[in-house]
What we know:
Number of strands: 14
Number of helices: 12
Largest sheet: 5 strands, antiparallel
Order of helices and strands: EHEHEEEHHHHHHEEHEEEEEEEHHH
Distance between the termini: 47 Å
CATH class of the largest domain: Alpha Beta
Radius of gyration: 18 Å
Low-confidence stretches: none
Helix content: 25-40%
Strand content: 25-35%
Structural class: alpha+beta
CATH architecture of the largest domain: 2-Layer Sandwich
Amino acid sequence: MYAFEYQRPTSRADAVSAASGDVRYLAGGQSLIQAMKLRLSQSERLVDLGAVADLKGIKADANGGTIGAMTTHAAVAASADVRRANPARAELAGGIGDPMVRNMGTIGGSIANADPAACHPAGVVGLGATVQTNKRSIAGDLFFTGLFETALEPGELIVSVSFPTAQKAAYVKYKQPASRFALIGVFVSQGSGGVRVAVTGAKGSVFRAKALEDGLTKSFTPEAAKAVKMPTDGINSDMHGSAAYRAAMISVMASRAVAAALAR
Length: 264
């Protein structure tokens, strides 16, 4: 691990003011610290957000709910408010990693890291969520821009994520056995804005599957999802699965997600 300066502010304002130059925000540390240990990431300064109380917490309302950026996966999974407003969100959080990752990792840290196989990005895009920073609101569809890349500007701090309600929603993933990341993960929702299908694990970034959205708009059934043949353009191919295999699994996972959504 390279040498770095460490700061632990207690307010949002102090965190933002400390974020100048070559700096990274530290949330739960489940990805960043491991990358730093392997010398895959280097910053002159880390700004630890663990003591910033107003970045934590869950608020529910008639339109859905807002989750603070430093709220852990475990807290999201256990929240009665989240389960009532968006049960699929709670189930997604409850299936991330192992107990240590769920109790340390945060929703803000996860989406800022933008791992191409992470689960939270699928929930953000699949529900049409909005990411609130200290500067602006960013639509979920515009937040993830590429492999480990987001629309965040240097020093910009994620404050919270707001999720709208959905009439039907579910997330299903085919887990990579060792890491429990999604080899393929599909979040399906049906709401006032229509049908949304977000896929993680298949490309360099989470994406919406238009072919599946079109098919499910006509018929929101598992059979309709399974009948969609996803193209292999841009789909990952590696030792865990070919592009053709992953493309086929997208339809299978979408079918299972629709079945789970209809069973609620």
